Amino acid sequence: MAEQKRYLLLTDSPDHPVSRDLQKLYPDMVGEVDVSKEDISLDLIGKAEAVITMCRKAEAVERFNQKPIMDYAAGGGLVISCLYEYAYWRGFPFLFRHAGRIRPTMEIIEECDVTRGFSRGDRLYWYRNANDVDDPAVGDYSYREIEVEGTIGRRILARSCMTGGAVIIEERVNRGRLVAMDFLSPMDLSLSDGDPHWNHPGAFNKYVFLGNLLGRTVRYGRYVNEKLPYGSFAERLRSMCGPRDEFRIEGIASDGSNIYSLTVGNTKGKMFYMQGVKHGVEWENAYGLLCLLESLKKDPPLDLQRFCVKVIPILNPYGYTHCCRHNANGVDLNRNQRPDWDRFRGWTDEVVAPWVFDYKGPRRLSEPEAELERNILRDQRIICFADFHGMVSGTMMDGSGPDPEVVIRVGEEFERAFANRYLIKGAHDRRVHQVNLMHRPQRDHPEQYKSEGSRYDFVCESYGQFPSTYATVMQTDYVAEMGRTILRVVALDTIRKEEGSKALGLGC
Known about the structure:
Blueprint: E1 7-11, H1 17-25, E2 30-34, H2 42-45, E3 50-54, H3 66-74, E4 78-82, H4 83-90, E5 94-100, E6 105-108, E7 123-125, E8 128-129, E9 141-146, E10 154-160, E11 166-173, E12 176-181, E13 187-188, H5 208-215, H6 230-239, E14 246-252, E15 258-265, E16 270-276, H7 284-298, E17 307-312, H8 317-322, H9 333-336, H10 368-377, E18 382-391, E19 396-400, H11 404-418, E20 423-424, E21 433-434, E22 456-463, H12 472-503
């Protein structure tokens, strides 16, 4: 190797999609060693922060010299191996299972740093599919597992739900640790540009567990094991209300449902208002806002004695329940409240009929949900408003406010915080790439993000609109991290300006 890298991949299959994906997830951090050409020694691997092994060919497993790898772990190092070589080293049966038309899942058995973002009992798709077609099932699903039980110094973190074999295993090796996991099964071999592909649930969480070990991928997000009925979601929101918080009914939606909010912090202080699920099909951000609220109670990024945060996770209960874009009247709420409602024509000009993609309604603010949003935003205490959406084509953030530098800083700080955490191949992407902002405010166009008012407004889009719950770790992490960034940056700017005004004797 020409230079030492933070992470070292030992493999018999150089330039494999896993190797290429790791290079994209951790640019300039991953070194690759072809074990068919170079012998493994402690001198070779000793300075790496972590060693990853990936054996793809049965006849090459002997090239993965066990002694220096175990010596590295015993000295306090972290070794992450695929299941095959781990089974070979430890003498356990390795099994390649064929599942036919059933999409296999695995169950989380233990909660720890490896499984961060998941809870015990969570089940998620985990399979190999050798075809491009994943829906409907094509009858060619398979997965890998090891027959092994936990003992002192070894524990099973995840098992196959079909046959009970171990899929993620942790073993303590003196001062270090060895983690074996199946990060080869969740892969579609026909996708030449690698995984994970946005519409293949077996691949979506592919690097979350490995990333938790290497770069602490999941910080605030949580896997959603099921999409809750609206009433159950409201009860979960109510259960988060502490003695100093305020849970309330904000109004009645177009289908007669109550619209709920939770406010944390000093309810007499300046307010941040955040909302989600204006479009019901973009339901994932509601759970991200729950994660944001949870993080505010544990580690708030702003002074909750000075500020408060009001959250309406679901503005459109009908759309959430029926997984559709519109409210109960067939109106696109994001079009109904537009200031240019009278001039807006929509994507296709077909804006005159309910249930058309972006039908704007019979008049501006005709819908109770849109009127409710308008009324909340009339509160003079609100210094910042963030509206969360989701789309299959990418991530973006737009904003406006009195100081464009603050808007730009939110985008920059979020990108730093979210870098090297998630990979995706979106609906319109040619190749796998890191999940980050595909569009954010730029310094060469600052006036574009300046508004005449004193309030900051943000619209944030994450990957969303997925049919089930398999992708929610990434999505909820995005919403929580973005929300925390907005809160931190705008609160610090507000304090700085208030203290500057006091120093000048102007009050605040």
